[in-house]
UniProtKB/TrEMBL annotation:
<comment type="function">
    <text>Plays an essential role in the initiation and regulation of chromosomal replication. ATP-DnaA binds to the origin of replication (oriC) to initiate formation of the DNA replication initiation complex once per cell cycle. Binds the DnaA box (a 9 base pair repeat at the origin) and separates the double-stranded (ds)DNA. Forms a right-handed helical filament on oriC DNA; dsDNA binds to the exterior of the filament while single-stranded (ss)DNA is stabiized in the filament's interior.</text>
</comment>
<keyword id="KW-0547">Nucleotide-binding</keyword>
<dbReference type="InterPro" id="IPR018312">
    <property type="entry name" value="Chromosome_initiator_DnaA_CS"/>
</dbReference>
<dbReference type="GO" id="GO:0005886">
    <property type="term" value="C:plasma membrane"/>
</dbReference>
<feature type="domain" description="Chromosomal replication initiator DnaA C-terminal">
    <location>
        <begin position="387"/>
        <end position="456"/>
    </location>
</feature>
<dbReference type="GO" id="GO:0006270">
    <property type="term" value="P:DNA replication initiation"/>
</dbReference>
<feature type="binding site">
    <location>
        <position position="190"/>
    </location>
    <ligand>
        <name>ATP</name>
    </ligand>
</feature>
<dbReference type="InterPro" id="IPR013317">
    <property type="entry name" value="DnaA_dom"/>
</dbReference>
<dbReference type="InterPro" id="IPR027417">
    <property type="entry name" value="P-loop_NTPase"/>
</dbReference>
<keyword id="KW-0963">Cytoplasm</keyword>
<dbReference type="GO" id="GO:0005524">
    <property type="term" value="F:ATP binding"/>
</dbReference>
<keyword id="KW-0067">ATP-binding</keyword>
<feature type="domain" description="AAA+ ATPase">
    <location>
        <begin position="176"/>
        <end position="312"/>
    </location>
</feature>
<dbReference type="Pfam" id="PF08299">
    <property type="entry name" value="Bac_DnaA_C"/>
</dbReference>
<comment type="similarity">
    <text>Belongs to the DnaA family.</text>
</comment>
<feature type="binding site">
    <location>
        <position position="187"/>
    </location>
    <ligand>
        <name>ATP</name>
    </ligand>
</feature>
<keyword id="KW-0235">DNA replication</keyword>
Length: 479
């Protein structure tokens, strides 16, 4: 009887596959349909087995319509598709077993059955942090213990983000700040705060699995997992985390595969009351090439901005560094440095450290005169860096593309506009001729550069969003 049913399930499924194959791309068919097994047919319901929960979610997300059409053709209007999820490596059971789920038409993706902690089912998953061949289920947090709340000075510029971070640390997953998105310009302390939250949680809740990862490393791991066909392990791994901290989330921009996988991981964690902390160099509203559904999730919790610190906070930060390094310095020198290095905290740190170094190497007393020399050099050096190369880098970083793309021949509007902005800034901030600018930025002629500058002037006048791009980037050059 079972054999008879199996045979029917298979033939019904085969017919469905033939139909699906004709309607989707070959690679998608291979990836998402070939691994499926038809396992049972009861009246109007077909049970299929899929290799993972992620697989199920993907099918429901992307292929539910075509599945419905195919199955209705085979089994009539009341056709139902039911999924069984294969759980590999179950404890004490070498045989795969399944969790069962109904098909939906974008109904809730998760059901009770799926909420069973993945941990227990898959103790041997591959940890993307571990070199192949070495097994280790213990997840290292990758946190930097030098970054703590104690040495993250509070000021008006970061009060909201810092307080929200503290609240999240005290009750990870239990506040409405989930996700907590910390955003702000370069070198203002996002990474520091993100680590501090993780370190504090580890102190308060040592049993929680906390993981800090940059979006860049996350992307590399995902790409590797696709290459090595360990995508499911990758997803399982991330679903084990209690507190996931992803730094520089804007890096996911334009990477639709990684965004997709992150979306699923995010949903899993969020629905299971796990805490997600994200940092970004822009507010969600300004992120480009990030899928809407992901952006809307970023906005579920709290987006807290870190701004440039005011002079009082800069003084406190400098004092913190001096205290840490056991160096004393006259108040007027600290104030001088704080008043003159305004760009961001990283540069403030850089200036005071070079001042300390200068004085100790040259065995000179730290005087206001020495401070002036160092700061002058420091600030001037930063100014000197505005070259066409630097402009191309800043503009392409801002739009999350590489400089090759910026300079390419493409006519895609957003790339053309980024290129035109780079030309515009090159004209504004360098002494290079139009012809020179053109030849460095995409090998164009002087007329193209002239046209670019006019177009940008015009866009700044007429397009509010574009003006914001211009102003954001311009800030990076005006020191
Ligand atoms: N409020 C603060 N108190 C003390 N140190 C700070 C503060 N804000 C930033 N810093 C220090 O400034 C430096 C730069 O901070 P961080 O790396 O966290 O910046 P970021 O915003 O993540 O920058 P990026 O966008 O480049 O990644 C770090 O050394 C950090 O410790």
């Amino acid at each position: 009887m079972l054999e008879y049913t199996n045979k029917n399930a298979k033939s019904v499924w085969n017919n469905c596959l033939n139909f699906i194959k004709d309607n989707i791309q070959e690679q998608a068919f291979k990836t998402w349909f070939e691994p499926i097994q038809a396992i049972e047919l009861t009246e109007n319901a077909l049970y299929i087995q899929v290799p993972s929960q992620f697989f199920y979610e993907w099918l429901e997300e992307h292929y539910v319509k075509i599945l419905k059409v195919a199955l209705t053709k085979e089994l009539g209007a009341g056709a139902k598709l039911l999924y069984k999820i294969q759980m590999e490596n179950a404890i004490g059971n070498k045989q795969p077993y399944t969790d069962q789920l109904p098909s939906t038409q974008r109904a809730p993706v998760r059901t009770q059955e799926l909420d069973v902690p993945v941990q227990n089912k898959n103790p041997e998953l591959k940890n993307p942090f571990i070199i192949p061949g070495i097994r280790n289920v213990k997840i290292e947090s990758q946190l930097n213990s030098n970054y703590s709340f104690d040495n993250f000075l509070e000021g008006d510029s970061n009060r909201l983000a810092r307080s929200a971070g503290l609240a999240v640390s005290n009750k990870p997953g239990g506040t409405s700040f989930n996700p907590l998105l910390i955003f702000g310009g370069v070198g203002l302390g996002k990474t520091h705060l993100a680590h501090a939250i993780g370190v504090e949680i580890k102190d308060l809740y040592p049993e929680k699995t906390v993981l800090y990862i940059s979006a860049e490393v996350f992307t590399q791991q995902y790409v590797d997992s696709v290459r090595k066909q360990t995508r499911n392990d990758f997803i399982y791994f991330y679903q084990l985390i209690d507190v996931l901290i992803v730094d520089d989330i804007q890096f996911l921009s334009g990477k639709s595969g990684t965004q997709d996988v992150f979306f699923h991981i995010f949903n899993h964690l969020h629905q299971n009351g796990k805490q997600v902390i994200l940092t970004s160099d822009k507010a969600p509203v300004d992120m480009q090439d990030i899928e809407q559904r992901l952006l809307s999730r970023f906005k579920w919790g709290l987006s807290a901005e870190i701004q440039n610190p005011d002079v009082d906070t800069r003084i406190e930060i400098l004092k913190g560094i001096l205290y840490r390094d056991g160096v004393s310095m006259p108040e007027e020198i600290i104030e001088y440095v704080a008043q003159n290095v305004k760009t961001n905290v990283r540069e403030l740190e850089g200036a005071i450290i070079s001042l300390i170094a200068q004085s100790s190497f040259n065995k000179r007393e730290i005087t206001l005169e020495l401070a002036k020399q160092v700061v002058d050099k420091f600030v001037k050096n930063v100014k000197k860096e505005i070259t066409i190369d630097y402009i191309q880098k800043v503009v392409s970083d801002y739009f999350q593309m590489d400089t090759e793309t910026l300079c390419s021949k493409t006519r895609k509007r957003h790339i053309v506009q980024a290129r035109q902005l780079a030309m515009f800034f090159a004209k504004k901030y360098t002494k290079a001729s139009l012809a020179n600018i053109g030849s460095e930025i995409g090998n164009r002629d002087h007329a193209t550069v002239l046209h670019a500058c006019k177009t940008i002037d015009n866009l700044i006048e007429t397009d509010k969003q574009f003006r914001k791009y211009h102003d954001d980037i311009n800030k990076k050059f005006s020191i």
